[in-house]
Amino acid sequence: MGLFGKKPTFLGVDFGSDLIKVAAVSVRDGRPYLSDYAYAHCDNPSRRSDVLRMIVSKLSKKSRNAYVALPGSSGLITVITFPKMSSTELEQAVRFEARKYIPMPLEEVNIAHDIILPAASSGKNAPAAGTPSEVSANRPEARETIDVLLVAAPRKDVQAYEKLIVDARLNIKALELETFALVRSLIGDDRGAHVIVDIGHTASNIVAVDGGVIRANRNIGIGGAHIITAISQALGVEADRARTYLQERDDLLQENGLAVQNIDMIVSDIRVVLRSFSSLENVTLLVSGGVSGLHMLTQYLQRRLGVTTVIGNPFARLTVPAAAQQAVTKLRGSYAVAVGLALRGVSEYHQ
What we know:
The chain folds into three domains: 10-71 and 157-185 and 317-350, Nucleotidyltransferase, domain 5, CATH 3.30.420; 74-154, Dna Ligase, domain 1 (2-Layer Sandwich); 188-314, ATPase, nucleotide binding domain (Nucleotidyltransferase, domain 5, 2-Layer Sandwich). The chain is built from ten helices and 13 strands. The chain has helices at 48-57, 87-101, 155-167, 178-186, 224-235, 239-246, 260-274, 297-305, 325-331, 336-350; strands at 10-15, 19-28, 31-41, 65-70, 76-83, 109-115, 145-154, 171-177, 193-199, 204-210, 213-220, 283-289, 308-311. Helix 1 (48-57) packs across helix 3 and helix 5 (224-235) packs across helix 6.
């Protein structure tokens, strides 16, 4: 592409259990620019490609370059420590050790791995479980051990998502676990210690990141739908009204509040992930997902866990048009995955 050629647009596609979200990000003056965004409800898996095609057709900035996420619950992310060895030996060792972590034949799994270097940022462009393995050869010779990030996902899941994109008449540029997209949009190049708590519709993804490197990842089957159902049933109101209460009522997270039980299940798993850090003094908790706007949620988590807690903002690393500022402020909890995927396209473009 020439120096003054047309700048491409990258689509981040997030298939949620009830929503399909798309973020269109291009490059302006060397910075990622939010060109457009759109979403639509879709709880019928057989209609996902049709709904996605409809969403993309309505975007003001046309593109067919799609970056797609697998749910975090579909895959495995773990760090394994090996003695120092050659790249060839490491390749064999990783596959041998992977059998201890993956509960199915390796022939049915896509595996990728990468050496974690002290100055690396595996969360920014980490290996995806739909791409070839990439191992850095620039490891310090003085180290006696090697930390390796192992990523795996069932091949049938990878193929199913690839088919969704092909059927939507888009070009799939990359497929990765949503965990990496979350880290890319909410943390980026920021150093320090962070824990992302992404509360999705039916599940939550908890990720510990230290110095840009994913150190722990945990998925649990509790999400916003469980919280909304509990409120709806307790108050005898429709689900839509219960969703409104999430942002309005002060009592949902008070002692014996309607949302406390489900949130405390998530809190228990956050505590497990927090053990990845030797000290919690400088850890920041970033909350995202559809119920991140639950009234007093950040205050509640900070009180229960003793760590600084804020709502993550995936749009902070983008230039956002003035006309869209107010809208994206309301959407920031739900768009971390879609934006993080599109940012991968921007990063590859710059490279």
